[in-house]
DNA sequence: AAGTGGTCTAGACCACACC
DNA sequence: GTGTGGTCTAGACCACTTA
């Protein structure tokens, strides 16, 4: 009835299900078990490790979630072909990002107006014509230099208390992050040449390559905001380190060169 | 002793742990439970749903993995503040990507040579001076137009059978994906202006903004390959749709404009 | 028909933060 | 001390694929 055959006796190792997971992962990463290989059945592993099936199950479930194996209900579990195509990227909150670098952060509101949704707004945000949109542009500075230019639309009807935010001093993204509960988001990342307006506001030459990040955010199916951000190409890089071991929680960071 | 209080009687609903998860997720997404809120204890939920604690545990564990809640061992489970900062991005295998668009794919090897690792190679790939590097450049076409330019280094010692690959006809990335078991990777995404060489090879004007993707790949701790790819900025966008509900498995795709 | 993974149960012991 | 989540057990029934 004592369930910890090992853990009560030995030092203080990681949980058994994690050890099982790591063991299998190591064999997959090393290539010992290559794609298509059928890993031992739950029943076999449970004998091998002297544990209950649910413990093995937890390990395999986790490997499946990470994309390392594929579980086929009546056939077994198989090593998947690698798909390095996906990576968890950090899309930074600019203010936090700059502060994290120990640079002085400054924010500047360039323009702000409230109006009815235009055709473009409706396409972008899928809101009714009667919706009210807050449209603004602002800049973020790292030290003395413009770090990013931001153009944002906010669906006022979805976030009525935006009126309480002082957007002349507080970045809209930061305010929204603090005050809007939860959301899903879509990102698009592309490279563009700075036009005259963007170049002038970012203090770079016309034509300089910029990383442009478009993000749309929803809460419970309703669009809340759409934002387009330009970063001078030489200032910002999106970085990700991706290890299958932690696919879900892969940590990433933005860096400067 | 009949464990499926609902499932044996009713139609064929989703597993109970998923329903529990969805119920809680809905309340978080809608804002009913806002960040910091302490959700019911496992014990309460298990009474509410009339199930065992492990079933509730599975639901909460999954929510925690997705980043929606935070579990504090002796305090309870709390709704987390949103962190839209991270997103699962698709870094496409170019050949697959082009074919998926129903465009004709063509590959062209520009240069190929084998040599000892240079200082730059060693910094990039962390290999000993004696390592042999395969250094190549190639182009990928979508229909008649150059779609991407690729510069790649391969650590021959780690992938000796690369010799069997006919790199004049087969893209190295595709070959590696097929033949190298499993790996971790690091990506860096940035925007650069095309220099004369890049512009000429991509058939664009000098200075055109390009999306530049750097990837390094390891297997079992040893670097295998490093690749730098340029995409004309107007041809390629990296897209991701991210819902907290499926953080781990978020689907994403690359798109053209 | 055998055997797989998917799901679930009704308990258990543990460490430890908080009360 | 109480009560939390973390972990684990030793079973169970199920649908269904594969052999």
Description:
Two copies of one chain form a homodimer. Chain A is α+β, with helices and mostly antiparallel strands. Chain A folds into two domains: 3-79, Arc Repressor Mutant, subunit A (Orthogonal Bundle), CATH 1.10.10.10; 94-256, Chorismate lyase-like (Chorismate lyase, 3-Layer(aba) Sandwich). The first copy, chain A, is built from seven helices and twelve strands. In chain A, the strands form three sheets. In chain A, strands 5-6-7-10-9-8 form a six-stranded antiparallel sheet. Chain A is elongated.
In a few lines, what is going on in this structure?
2 copies of one chain form a homodimer. The first copy, chain A, has helices at residues 16-30, 42-48, 53-65, 94-100, 119-125, 172-179, 196-202, and strands at 38-39, 69-72, 76-79, 86-90, 105-116, 132-142, 145-155, 184-193, 209-219, 222-232, 237-242, 252-255.
Please, what is the average pLDDT of chain A?
Answer: 85
What is the highest CATH level, the class of the largest domain in chain A?
A: Alpha Beta
Q: Percent of residues of chain A in helical segments? A: 10-25%
Q: Kindly report how far apart the N and C termini of chain A lie.
A: 58 Å
Order of helices and strands of chain A: HEHHEEEHEHEEHEHEEEE
Seen as an oligomer or otherwise, the chain set is homodimer
CATH A-level architecture of the largest domain in chain A: 3-Layer(aba) Sandwich
Q: What's the structural domain tally of chain A?
A: 2
Strands of the largest sheet of chain A, in order across it?
5-6-7-10-9-8
Supply the CATH superfamily name of the largest domain in chain A.
Answer: Chorismate lyase-like
Radius of gyration of chain A: 25 Å
Strand tally of chain A:
12
Largest interface: A-B, 67 and 68 residues
| CATH fold descriptor of the largest domain in chain A | Chorismate lyase
Strand content of chain A: 35-45%
- The total count of helices of chain A amounts to 7
């Amino acid at each position: 009835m004592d369930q910890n055959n090992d853990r009560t006796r030995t030092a203080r190792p990681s949980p058994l299900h994690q050890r099982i997971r790591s063991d299998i992962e190591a064999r997959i990463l090393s290539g010992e078990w290559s794609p298509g290989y059928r890993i031992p059945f739950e029943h076999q592993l449970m004998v091998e490790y002297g544990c209950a099936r649910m413990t093995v199950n937890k390990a395999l479930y986790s490997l499946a979630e990470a994309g390392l194996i594929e579980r086929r209900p009546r056939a077994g579990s198989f090593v998947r072909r690698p798909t390095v195509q996906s990576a968890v990227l950090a899309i930074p909150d600019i203010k936090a990002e700059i502060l994290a670098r120990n640079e002085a952060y400054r924010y500047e509101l360039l323009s702000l107006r409230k109006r009815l949704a235009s055709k473009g707004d409706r396409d972008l945000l899928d809101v009714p014509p009667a919706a009210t949109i807050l449209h603004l542009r602002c800049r973020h500075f790292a030290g003395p230099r413009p770090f990013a230019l931001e153009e944002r639309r906010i669906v006022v009807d979805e976030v009525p208390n935006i009126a309480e935010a002082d957007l002349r001093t507080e970045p809209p993204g930061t305010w929204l992050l603090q005050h809007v509960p939860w959301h899903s988001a879509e990102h698009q990342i592309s490279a563009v040449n700075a036009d005259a307006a963007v170049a002038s506001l970012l203090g770079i030459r016309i034509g300089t390559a910029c990383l442009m990040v478009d993000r749309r955010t929803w809460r419970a199916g309703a669009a809340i905001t759409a934002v387009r951000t330009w970063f001078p190409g030489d200032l910002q890089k999106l970085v990700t380190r991706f290890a299958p071991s932690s696919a879900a929680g892969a940590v990433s960071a933005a860096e400067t060169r």
